[in-house]
Specification:
Blueprint lengths: L8 H10 L7 E7 L6 E6 L2 E6 L5 E6 L3 H18 E10 L5 H12 L31
Parallel strand pairs: 1-5
Antiparallel strand pairs: 2-3, 2-4
Helix pairs in contact: 1-2, 2-3
Length: 142
Amino acid sequence: MNLLIQGDNVAGMRYLLEVKRMRGKIDLVYIDLPFATGGKFIISNDRISTISRVREGELAYSDELRGPDYLMFLRERLVLLKKLLSVQGSIYLHIDYKIGHYVKILMDEIFGFENFRNDITRIKCNPKNFSRVGYGNIKGNL
């Protein structure tokens, strides 16, 4: 049976734990978090399938948490996810290089350093064609 929960994900996970009794029953979790950018992201009629930092449109989400506040926000969610994950479960967390090292330490604390399996890196092109002031965002393991 499929279930779609719209709303606060903390409330949703508590519902899964307390009402649906799904502790230890989830095999796969994928999280696409805000990246602690400090920005507001908009969806507009001109860009229906894209959320961006354009000025006009409807607020899709606000990414204003940073530093310790961001990590506390994430910690609360990861602790609940650990309760939901089965013994063989996997969690995939999409994050960028600017906050990823902090998130890795947090995940090691919650899930155990020994449970880390891999870092998956994608090569991202620059579809917006804006000029870059730094190095490209390609990362590799040596």
